[in-house]
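$ ./design --mode recover --in tokens.txt
reading tokens...
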């Protein structure tokens, strides 16, 4: 039975408008990006180039280490991907402490650590050998560079080699110049092909392209239903023809349908197998012949380590592929697959999946990935994610409020919800330099605090409020007074600072204690001061030291319990409340 699932509300005619919007967004994104980081995308990316001049090394090291340089020496439990590899590499830098210059003798031990870290990360032995040899050769020939310590020099060399290992430049998806672009997805069972189909459509839709999915997995009937549901979720039509039709025929019919509807990109899902077998390869070859795809992408599971690289090689030899999509990178603490695929197979990783949400698919940037491996965060991805969830006008509005110290509970709620849309807190923190080392326990504490805070803020009056008053004269007669009052506690935290009755009410309505409400109110005043200072520094042209954020977080954790209660007793007036609030550390996790 043939049926084009009418799950799409996206008209193909919307294409032009979408493309325009996307171009405009890219332009504003670039402005926002340079405003935020003090640089442009290309300038930042250029740090990845394999340069060796003293000035370049020096400025690179400074740009990567100012404010968070100390952080990659501390070994703590890491919550983000590549955690194991990052910790392993850290051991290498520490061995060079106190050295004046890199020599053949003093790099021997760090090189052993690097080798061990890469092997533990499941990078294949020949790749590790080549990598270590290349790093050693460069390190020994470097000599003394004024102002740059040997451990920093080694970090820089390893960074550049990692970038090279992962393919150097970003490998973009290719689009057909005429007719629909066809993307054929292949891969073993359970690696995430069906999910990637929908994620890819979601990703391409954001670029203004209309998409259609073809359900070609005829062996697992649930795969067709799964694709239809995911298609509905991302609002993209799905072509299905049941399980009785051959995949090559489904591909042919689906492509005709896509051409009829003027679809920009067709993405075909195929069946997986537990292992590579001849039947699977023959079937893929047939489908490929019919579709003549622009891209043949092999979906591989990052958690399979160097096995993923071997699979890419085999599929490339058998059917000819254009690249790979690495899924489940969020669960991979080793990194072997990301580091090996290009070097072993010669085929680039084009996209990576980092979560189960439809938005969790992104281009593979070797430079940013190398930064993450070395525990330096990924500011550019952070900014891009932030731009996706925050409108530019909102950002400007927020900036004005911060500068005039008017950041309020409504803004706080909006911001925390926007950050939640960027993904899990672990993932968001992993993108911020120096924050990748926040322990899972700290993250859990902060997440719990946010839930408590949201409950309290929701119990605050947002604006106009109806108040009821019941006056009873006797058992039969009563008068109900109803009046409207402008109470805006969320907009004016001062109201709560001044009034113990209001704090008591919020505590009662939210099911929290009065002490917790007082702490929250104190916190918003502290945040106003801190954010204003931070914005001042950034407008002055430099990004504040991120290690200070880490230190301040630690200081806050050491705040004695009951601080806010003691202060509350002292602070009867609003002035005292605000002053005491802004001069004392807040409770654990709050406001950070
Ligand atoms: N954490 C995480 N899970 C993912 C990611 N990509 C896919 N998954 C999950 O992996 C599981 C398998 O995904 P599917 O899309 O069904 O895999 P498949 O390759 O189509 O499976 P077959 O059709 O059986 O071959 C699902 O639970 C997905 O949610 C990812 O990037 N991160």
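writing sequence...
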């Amino acid at each position: 039975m043939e049926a084009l699932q009418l799950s799409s509300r996206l008209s193909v005619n919307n294409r032009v408008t979408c493309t325009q919007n996307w171009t405009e967004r890219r332009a504003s994104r670039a402005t926002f990006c340079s405003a935020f980081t003090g640089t442009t995308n290309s300038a930042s990316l250029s740090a990845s180039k394999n340069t060796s001049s003293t000035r370049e090394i020096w400025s690179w090291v400074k740009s990567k280490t100012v404010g968070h340089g100390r952080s990659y020496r501390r070994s703590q439990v890491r919550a983000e991907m590549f955690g194991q590899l990052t910790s392993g590499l850290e051991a290498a830098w520490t061995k060079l402490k106190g050295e004046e210059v890199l020599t053949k003798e003093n790099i021997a031990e760090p090189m052993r650590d690097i080798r061990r870290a890469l092997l533990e990360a499941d990078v294949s032995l020949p790749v590790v050998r080549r990598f270590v040899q290349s790093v050693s050769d460069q390190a020994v020939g470097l000599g003394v560079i004024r102002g740059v310590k040997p451990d920093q020099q080694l970090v820089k060399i390893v960074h550049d080699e990692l970038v090279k290992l992962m393919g150097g430049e970003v490998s973009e998806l290719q689009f057909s110049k005429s007719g629909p672009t066809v993307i054929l997805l292949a891969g073993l069972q359970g690696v995430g092909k069906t999910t990637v189909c929908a994620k890819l459509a979601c990703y391409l839709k954001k670029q203004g392209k209309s998409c259609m999915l073809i359900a070609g997995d005829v062996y697992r009937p649930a795969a067709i239903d799964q694709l239809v549901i995911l298609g509905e979720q991302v609002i993209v039509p799905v072509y299905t023809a049941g399980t009785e039709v051959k995949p090559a025929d489904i591909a042919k019919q689906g492509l005709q349908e896509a051409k009829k509807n003027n679809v920009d990109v067709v993405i075909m899902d195929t069946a997986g197998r537990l292992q590579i077998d001849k039947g699977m390869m023959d079937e893929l070859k047939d489908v490929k012949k019919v579709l003549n795809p622009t891209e043949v992408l092999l979906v591989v599971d990052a958690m399979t380590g160097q096995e993923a690289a071997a699979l890419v090689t085999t599929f490339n030899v058998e059917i000819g592929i254009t690249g790979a999509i690495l899924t489940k990178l969020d669960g991979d603490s080793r990194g072997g697959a990301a580091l090996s695929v290009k070097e072993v197979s010669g085929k680039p990783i084009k996209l990576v999946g980092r979560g189960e949400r439809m938005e969790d698919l992104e281009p593979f940037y070797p430079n940013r990935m190398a930064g993450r491996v070395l525990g330096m965060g990924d500011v550019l991805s952070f900014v891009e994610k932030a731009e996706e969830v925050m409108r530019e006008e909102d950002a400007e509005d927020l900036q004005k409020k911060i500068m005039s110290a008017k950041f309020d509970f409504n803004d706080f709620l909006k911001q925390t919800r926007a950050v939640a849309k960027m993904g899990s807190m672990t993932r968001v923190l992993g993108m911020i330099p120096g924050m990748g080392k926040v322990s899972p326990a700290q993250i859990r504490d902060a997440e719990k605090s946010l839930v408590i805070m949201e409950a309290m803020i929701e119990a605050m009056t947002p604006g106009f409020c109806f108040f009821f008053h019941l006056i009873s004269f006797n058992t039969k007669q009563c008068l109900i007074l109803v009046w409207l009052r402008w109470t805006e506690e969320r907009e004016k935290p001062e109201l709560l600072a001044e009034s113990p009755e209001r704090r008591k009410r919020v505590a009662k309505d939210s099911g929290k204690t009065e002490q917790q409400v007082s702490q929250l109110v104190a916190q918003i005043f502290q945040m106003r001061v801190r954010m204003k200072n931070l914005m001042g520094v950034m407008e002055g042209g430099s990004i504040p030291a991120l290690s200070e954020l880490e230190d301040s977080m630690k200081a806050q954790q050491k705040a004695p319990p009951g601080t806010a209660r003691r202060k509350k007793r002292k602070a009867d007036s609003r002035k005292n409340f605000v002053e005491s609030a802004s001069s004392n550390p807040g409770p654990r996790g709050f406001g950070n």
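exit 0
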